[in-house]
Design brief:
By secondary structure, this protein is mainly α. Helix content is about 70%, strand content about 0%. The longest helix has 24 residues, at about 25-50.
């Protein structure tokens, strides 16, 4: 199939539909999912070790999303607030409040250039919360 030699728009769309219908075997999808989660878990650990609260929150949110929705999400840090809002709809009010509090602490820490915000406490709180999301 050579898309460069397509003569009409309908031929082009037909060829694109054929390409889109390619299926990835379930085993490969599972491996991709596991490797992506392992990568995020490594980022989470590295962020905690280096006291990088924004990265920790970002990795936590992506891991939480994958645990709750059983799907991967790749998003930059600027989308963390929207993802947190979406996650809040799937969580108890108490769990959603913990994440929101962590987000507020991280934002205060960023805005004050590291001079304010209780980010040290978010690591343990969010790790415990993540463990509850991973329970079957």
């Amino acid at each position: 199939m050579n898309l460069a030699k397509v003569s009409t728009a309908s031929d082009f769309l037909r060829d694109v539909e054929k390409i889109i219908q390619i299926r990835v075997p379930e085993k490969e999808l599972t491996e991709i999912f596991i490797k992506a989660r392992e990568s995020l878990e490594t980022q989470l650990k590295g962020a905690e070790d280096s006291s990088d609260a924004p990265l920790f929150l970002h990795a936590f949110v992506l891991l939480s999303f994958s645990s709750i929705n059983k799907s991967l999400l790749f998003a930059s840090g600027k989308f963390v607030p929207q993802i947190i809002t979406r996650l809040g709809k799937s969580l108890t009010a108490e769990d959603a409040a913990k994440i929101k509090t962590a987000q507020d602490s991280v934002m205060l820490h960023i805005k004050s250039k590291g001079t304010q915000g209780q980010v040290d406490t978010i690591y343990g709180d969010l790790k415990v919360l993540l463990k509850t999301f991973n329970k079957p």
